[in-house]
Amino acid sequence: QYHIFYQYHSYNGAWGHMNWGHAVSKNLVDWIHYPSALLPNDYYDRHGCFAGSTIVNRNFLMLFYTGRILAEKETYETQNVAVSGDGVFFQKYLYNPIIRQSPNGLGEFRNPKVWRFGRRWYMIVGNTSTKRRGQLLLYTSEDLFNWNFNNTLVTSYGDMGYLWENPDLFELDGMHVLIISVQGMELDGWRFRNLCQTGYVIGHFNHYKGRFDDIEVSIATFNQL
Question: Is the pTM of this model over 0.90?
Answer without folding.
Answer: yes
